[in-house]
Amino acid sequence: MARKLLLEHINVPGINTFDVYRSKGGYAAVEKALKTLTPEEIVEEVKKSGLRGRGGAGFPTGMKWSFLAKPEGVARYLVCNGDESEPGTFKDRFLMTYIPHLLIEGMIVSSFALGANTSYIYLRGEMMPQIRILEKAIAEAKAKGFLGKNILGTGYDLELYVQPGGGAYICGEETALLESLEGKRGNPRIKPPFPAIAGLYGCPTVVNNVESIAAVVPIINDGGEEYAKIGIGRSTGTKLISAGGNLKRPGVYEIELGLSAEEFVYGDDYCQGIANGKRLKAVVAGGSSVPILPANLFLKTINNEARLMSYESLSDGGFATGTMLGSGGFIAYDEDQCIVRNTWNFARFYHHESCGQCSPCREGTGWMEKVLHRLEYGHGKMSDIDLLVDVSKKIEGNTICPLGDAAAWPVASAIRHFRDEFEWHVTSAYEATTRNYGLAHYADPLNAVVA
Amino acid sequence: MKVTIDGFPIDVEPGTTILNAARMIGGDIVPPAMCYYSKLEGSGGKCRTCLVKVSKGSEKDPRPMPKLVASCRTTVMDGMEVQNITSPEVIEARKGVVEMLLINHPLDCPVCDQAGECHLQDLGYEHGAAKTRYEFDRRTFEKIDIGDKIQLHMTRCILCYRCVFTADQITDHRIHGILNRGDHSEISTYIQKAVDNDFSGNVIDVCPVGALTDKTFRFKNRVWFTKPVEAHRDCDHEKCNGKVTLWYKGEDVIRVTARKDEYGEVEEFICNTCRFDKKKTADWVIEGPRKVSNKSVISANHYDTLKPLPVVKANPQLQQANKEQFERETRL
């Protein structure tokens, strides 16, 4: 069994209460950080650990922290991005529901490292139970002197607030999140300036994912170098993967980065294979925005090497034959699933969630959704497939925020890898409404496909 | 700071945007802008028509920028090299943006009051394909009156947010904004006819399309049949200096607008009294006809200087030939 850093005590009864969490060694990182380390040393530890942002982009957290502007007399803020709304991703919700004190401990250490005296945890509006849980945990920590004025007698003050959003996917984009936190309409800002220079209320701000902040706790406890030993290459540490879809045992797993993809899908410690004795057809490896891959390309890279669950290995092959680790929302599709319908479903989501600020995304997402709807319901034309590719290209890279890219990639990659299934939906339109395309050649050994 | 746009070098102040640097050079290399408005702080970056390629970041860091950037919101760096119309990538992206802007636009130019001075029309002619690939129903909205003299035809709106910034920055308080999100988002006051402000009429001038129109002018005339004349009056309003353009049809002033520059941006915002209530020649001091660019359809009925038609010279050879032919035919 692999090492667990975040979910080590997840099965201890009552771990969501302060006393049990403390008895399992919780809040040791706060004591260590506040009493023995300086903020610069913490940032240095995080840099050494090689921790990369767990929200999707994979930007090194330590580097992000060191970019934070530190002008005199201006408040700095740490904002925790808990607006987890990517279809397929539910790791942060799991973490906050069952072990809320880990996040709060991480917030205290990180806020101390960044010199923030007010920090926010921004949650999606739909996560009302988690808001209650976190608020209870904050009250407990405050009662024990880990929050508020003069924490543990070190003279450091920190107020922690939980703020629910209105329930918009776009508010997971960091600048839209800050707008929403300020009480405005959640439209992404135009960068530059980046939040590290002018973020919340125009002050320097760091926005980090829930899991990134939680991962600071084991880094401080064990030291950055120890953390960096876990994992492979530049993908260090452990990662929460929320596995869903047609798996025998879906759920949230903490994996050491570098675990082989085959082991993750079929291993006994993990998902235990595909449910109901079906075969794997396709995989979305990191939440709905990352390119979808057929089973053969997911398990093996184009060079016939085993694919690993790490930032580098999953993106091996670029957009042509690779994907991304993203936020860790792992979705498996068995042979009975229709890729066209799934792509339409994703496009519908992005159409619904586009903020409507910039034109390519606002108009293009709706257009793609309508074309895909037509294909799925048997009214499509052969030219629609190329039209979709063209529209997705016109959106990609031309928008203010990454939502445009996130909407374009699943469509473009589904057509790239499953073009014959799309064509079958046009040529056998009636049949396509009565049955699914099936597995076809999507799990065949690679050289048969990429000849 | 030195910046090169499509091969044209120019020296600009630090903090200038690429778009403004291009406007200083002028000509065809100026990127089109549907949402950027130089008089409104914070505008721009939304429509994506002004995308340009930065092929060299700066003298210090010569790497090109990975994506196309919105020229209206990107400031220049020393030694930056920008490609606008010389980059096929930019032309392609802009064509895509224009197509996107038009797929939900009703294309009702024949009955639209903005036709002839519409930025989207110009942009469509310049970049758009003649045919659309969009085969679905367009989004539609009911027309509403957002003020007693301003009508909102949301179906035409391209969501540039200019009117929102105008209401924020020019008027005392803003009571209209964007409702909903995505392609069903709309400009709305929530309560109809709620906009009553001395400067609210300026939202009509800043609107790049025919979404916000002047109810005192609606369906009165096509703009290219009217004659623009510059005029001013002594306005009581402390923020308005009364410099306007009067649009004449025959003897009547049928519309009053602020004066606009070559990029369609108003030079000075005017108050509602000047715009809606002063529609007699006697109210104004006439300065003279307004110069209209010969690229504009409005100039079709205007002549800068009267050039008499050239007199046809007598051609003896041709006259002789005609005479001979006439004789031949009568003989037969």
Describe the fold and architecture:
The complex is a heterodimer of chains A (451) and B (332). With 451 residues, chain A is of the alpha/beta class. Chain A folds into 3 domains: 18-229, 3-Layer(aba) Sandwich (Rossmann fold); 232-334, Ubiquitin-like (UB roll) (Roll); 339-435, NADH-ubiquinone oxidoreductase 51kDa subunit, iron-sulphur binding domain (de novo design (two linked rop proteins), Up-down Bundle), CATH 1.20.1440.230. Chain A contains 21 helices and 13 strands. In chain A, helix 2 packs across helix 9. The longest helix of chain A is centred in the last third of the chain and has 18 residues, at 359-376. Chain B has 332 residues and is of the alpha+beta class. Chain B is built from 7 helices and 14 strands. In chain B, a hairpin with a 2-residue loop joins strand 1 (2-5) and strand 2. Chain B is globular. At the A-B interface, helix 15, helix 16 and helix 17 of A face helix 2 of B.
